[in-house]
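ARCHIVE CARD
Drawer: 12
Card no.: 0347
Subject: one protein chain, sequence and derived structure
Cross-reference: see card 0346
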Amino acid sequence: DKLLMATSLLRSTLQREPAGSFCACRGGGLDGSAIRLALHSWPGLWSVLVRVAEVVCWTVYEVVFNPGPRGVMKLPRLHTLLAAAIRHQVISLAKVGDGVADATYEEVQAFEEVAWKVNRPEQWDSFRAHRPYSLKGYHSRAPDVGAPAPDGVVHSLSSGAEMRLLSTARAVAGSSSLVALSFDSLSCPVWRGFAGAELHRIARSFGVPVLHVYMAEAHPDDAFPSPMQGPVALASELRRHRDLEERKAAAGRAQAFLTHKVGRPVVLVADGMGDALEEAYEARPFRMFILDVSRPDACVVAHKTGLAPFNMGAKFAELRAFLCLWRSRARNGA
């Protein structure tokens, strides 16, 4: 707080100071137009510098004083400090094609066969068991845009009580005609590295509520451990869920982590132990669907991201574009 107050004081001081007082030059070798250009640009430059100072101060605050909930990340301060670099590296390394558009199933399948069968043959069998949708020859059965959204049983984290996914989604949506379904797994290093929070923020920035569904682990340490660790390593192992209580416990860790990252409470339920919803939406390692809940008789898929974690930049851009168009049409009564 003191750092932020100091930054605000610096900005207010700079904004009160006449622009010309910062320039000791009164002519010299500069002509009048150059001096006017310099004086005109100086306030803008100070605005940029103050903004940079704010970002630095906020980063220092987050790294030192507010790195996140205990017991989730092994190196929470390092993860916070390197978050932007992690995002950049993942988007660069997990780029299929030119990366401008979201990746198709066929593109992902070709990429993953080289990544795992060729480059990591010792994990190929584990990969096949945990990523059936990413195997060559698999044809998607996930709902397309315009199709009814599959329903199924989800469980409350607090009581374990059974609920229906779509009725819960409608309740979360409230007065909104759209609701986002975010299928999550804390063991996925890309989800916890940046993607889970960023997908949530994009949806919320357009006023779309988000219902999070915790599912089978994407990278259980006892069956398919992720090679990506370092600054995104977890504080303790996440193994395959043997029962609903273990799934709820993992979901609770994910909920605490995500709440910290997005700065507000998140609604999270758990998929059943039969993984019916994960299979219906082909969601591993993580995925987001936008549902249109404006009709009382059906919930319809309005938008969906492709298989993760490929072309994440395109996923974010396409989600923003869809929500921007939806908001524009809603405002115009279309």
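Annotation on reverse: The first helix runs from residue 2 to 16. Residues 73 and 270 are 21 Å apart (CA to CA).
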